[in-house]
Amino acid sequence: MTPDEFMRGLECFPAYVYDLDGLREHVASIRNVLGPELFYAAKANPDPAILRAVAPHVDGIEVASGGELAHVRKTLPEARLAFGGPGKTDEELALALDLGVERIHVESPHELARLAALNRPAQILLRANLKLPTTGAALQMSGPFGMDEQALSACARAITDSPHLTLRGIHAHLASGLDAPAMLDLAKHIIDWAVPWLERHRVEDPEINLGGGMAVDYHSPAQRFDWKAYGEGLPAYGEGLPASAAKLRIEPGRALTAYHGWYVTDVLDVKTTHGETYAVLRGGTQHLRTPVTKGHNQPFTVVSNASEDVRPVTLVGQLCTPKDVFARDVPVPATLRPGDVIAFAMAGAYAWNISHHDFLMHPEPAFHYLDRGFI
Ligand SMILES: *Cc1c(COP(=O)(O)O)cnc(C)c1O
């Protein structure tokens, strides 16, 4: 059954629908065209069923808190893990070592000192905050994240002086929302800076984690990140490169899971006020905060009404705030009426898990997983 067929048959709203079969196929196809290792950034969507669908097709999972760490380890006992994110507590660092995290992405000299004080073996990537060109990025990951060259060198020295810590490489997640050519350009700048740096600091079998942030275009959902071009453009480890070249790893979240989730709900009311027509939908952006946080119209289809005759309507939820808007002045079938069913697409990442569920205490959505488990 296709996701469309499934959603047309739904009777209870609102509901999240996840297409696990499509997700497996999508991630496997990305894995097939990539040289670097592929980790999934769990913060995009840590739903256990999503994690279990993605896991066989990636090399590991990146977690960004003690909560994610415990959750992912419980869901995927065998997965290779990397632990990143700012402001790690002593308890979280110890938990990472207890739960067998393979790489810790250290964000600051103070964090490194606290990790060293645990007196336990740890394998480290230092997170670099590099001033590199990231034109066209939706989000610049500069500011508090990672370290400048001075702090990086201080950390490298401290690691050399520590009997338990091993420097394995550099981590650089510098931007979000770049297309493949821009992402490749950024990757080359990172590699050109990091390879000599790693050589200078005598890092054996060095690794470079290039981060995530591969673009997802909510305005034109069919416009996908060109994984083939990205995979072909990146240098492959050991292939005609100097011995100093590094093993590459990436850790996207959004571009892996965004496309295989939908928030499906029905129309409760259609009304015109001061010349503007609104469709009030069951639920609201407390279940799907993405359009509000990103400032876009969430892509959607009206699954119950295929009429080609359209008119502009603003799609809102049941919250008592003018900010509760899924999409503003968008064309919908002119005959849209209460009972019609709307499926918001691209709700598989940074959707349910970033939303403020309890606001106004409306019922939570049901969750459905399309899963034949073929792949
Ligand atoms: C959020 C995050 C990612 C994933 O970013 P996407 O935009 O979802 O691909 C990867 N690495 C780090 C360090 C992050 O903070």
Describe the overall structure.
With 375 residues, the chain is α/β, with parallel strands linked by helices. It has two domains: 46-252, TIM Barrel (Alpha-Beta Barrel); 259-370, Lyase, Ornithine Decarboxylase, Chain A, domain 1 (Beta Barrel), CATH 2.40.37.10. The protein has helices at 3-9, 20-32, 48-54, 66-75, 90-98, 109-117, 149-161, 180-200, 227-233, 254-257, 290-294; strands at residues 15-19, 37-41, 60-63, 81-83, 103-106, 122-127, 139-140, 165-171, 175-176, 207-209, 247-250, 261-273, 276-281, 300-302, 310-316, 325-333, 341-344, 366-370. A hairpin with an 8-residue loop joins strand 15 (310-316) and strand 16 (325-333). Helix 2 packs parallel to helix 3 (48-54) and helix 6 (109-117) packs parallel to helix 7. The longest helix is centred in the middle third of the chain and has 21 residues, at 180-200. The model has no long low-confidence stretch (mean pLDDT 94). The structure holds pyridoxal-5'-phosphate. Pyridoxal-5'-phosphate binds at residues 41, 43-44, 62, 64, 84, 173, 176, 211-214, 251-255. Pfam families: Orn_Arg_deC_N, Orn_DAP_Arg_deC. Its cofactor is pyridoxal 5'-phosphate. Keywords: Pyridoxal phosphate.
- Spatial separation of the terminal alpha carbons: 15 Å
Instruction: Compute the number of structural domains.
Output: 2
Class from secondary-structure proportions: alpha/beta
* Rounded radius of gyration (Å): 23 Å
Task: Give the helix level as a range of percent.
Answer: 25-40%
Number of beta-strand segments:
18
Low-confidence spans: none
Q: Write down the overall mean pLDDT.
A: 94
Number of helices: 11
CATH evolutionary superfamily of the largest domain: Alanine racemase
